[in-house]
Amino acid sequence: MTTENYNPLLVAQKQIAHAAEKLQLDLRILEMLKEPERCLEVSIPVKMDDGMVQVFKGWRCQHNTAIGPAKGGLRYHPDVTQEEVKALAMWMTFKCNVVGLPYGGGKGGIRVDPRKLSVGELERMTRAYINLIAPVIGPTKDIPAPDVYTTPQIMGWIMDEFSKINGCNVPGIVTGKPIIVGGSLGRDKATARGCTIVIREAAKKLGIPLQGAAVAVQGYGNAGSFLATLLTEMGCKIVAVSDSKGGIYHSDGLNAQAVIDHKAHTGSVVGFPGAKVITNQELLDCDVDILVPAAFENQIDADVAAQVKAKIVAEAANGPTTPEGDAVLYDKGVLVIPDILASAGGVTVSYFEWVQNLANFYWSLEEVNNRLEHIMVNSFAAVYAMHQDKGVSMRDAAYMVAINRIAEAIKIRGWI
Ligand code: GLU
């Protein structure tokens, strides 16, 4: 793999260009979509518990707002870069539009290892970051949400800080909040639930019964762990899971909930009683029907893809497959449910949360889940139809569905 492929922005740009070519998209629109509209960089000074001050780098990036305000998560991770935040914002534009939400894409990030901060330091850093980006965010401008290593509690602080700046409660500033301050029922499991719905639809198309289907899940955070439990309820057998410390395997299937409990006590899935320890590579190579990368970018390159045995790859993470890996999977006939579709359940329920905040009228869990089901089933059908009609990969098809919407808005607004 070339170094270029490790740059997620170049990967995102390649993906758009690929789909744009198939659509014969107006090149002026492609140029517009290659870079974000705005990317704000901030330096966040935080008073640490030991009396010192540490300054963290952060960004908030808005990719394209032709359809509506920017929407997307906020990531706390020691490897966050500006290029990564730009790529993630770009992916959000297409994610929102493949499922028909009235949003453009946004993303934020702070280069920090939140696991090394005390709760007080984490809160002070979050509040300082919100003060610095307050001029460019708002319920009609840009609405943050959770992402890697950011939690409902962090969203609660964001809601509070922004409300204080504005002198009134502004619950619609952020989604993924705790229920008591305007969060939506079902948001916590929404990314996982959305992904299981499209896995079910894909399995139907390929004639793979979910009952007894073997699944490997890379990443056991919010998305991966809930996915494993939901897929278990649907009859699947979770044979392998992993987290940043390593992977575990059991040919008879792992008890997904027991693994969640084990991780909660020990900090990792590794060491789960009775399971064999495996490497990340072994997890991706596993002999399974369904592989779910639910961790980070650039996990499946051409070499890894050549070893993949799954018939369905459902990308619950953002950007887990490189363009070269994608080509190999496509040639092998693996059905890839691309990230912008497979992981869209989270932002879909974030949209529901924002709508409930703006209306000040709250829905039941059943209403949330039914609406999510409806959107995911219809979006999968639209992407699958494009994939079949145009003879393109599922990724190209998903981008084509999304780009068509954005291009129409750009034209109608007179941007070109
Ligand atoms: N961070 C999530 C994503 O990448 C959720 C974004 C949101 O809810 O706005 O899709």
Layout of helices and strands, plus pairs?
Layout: H1 8-23, H2 27-34, E1 38-47, E2 53-64, E3 70-71, E4 74-77, H3 82-98, E5 104-111, H4 119-133, E6 142-143, H5 152-166, H6 190-206, E7 214-218, H7 222-233, E8 237-243, E9 246-249, H8 256-266, E10 276-278, H9 280-285, E11 290-293, H10 302-307, E12 312-314, H11 323-332, E13 335-337, H12 339-342, H13 344-359, H14 365-390, H15 394-412
Overview of the molecule:
By secondary structure, the protein is an alpha/beta fold. Among the domains are: 36-172, Leucine Dehydrogenase, chain A, domain 1 (Rossmann fold, 3-Layer(aba) Sandwich), CATH 3.40.50.10860; 190-342, Rossmann fold. The chain contains 15 helices and 13 strands. It has helices spanning 8-23, 27-34, 82-98, 119-133, 152-166, 190-206, 222-233, 256-266, 280-285, 302-307, 323-332, 339-342, 344-359, 365-390, 394-412; strands spanning 38-47, 53-64, 70-71, 74-77, 104-111, 142-143, 214-218, 237-243, 246-249, 276-278, 290-293, 312-314, 335-337. A 7-stranded mixed beta sheet has the order 10-9-8-7-11-12-13, with helices on both faces. The radius of gyration is 20 Å and the shape is globular. It starts with 7 loop residues before the first helix and ends with a helix. 54% of the residues are buried. The model is unreliable at 1-5 (pLDDT under 50). The site of glutamic acid (GLU) has 13 residues, from helix 13.
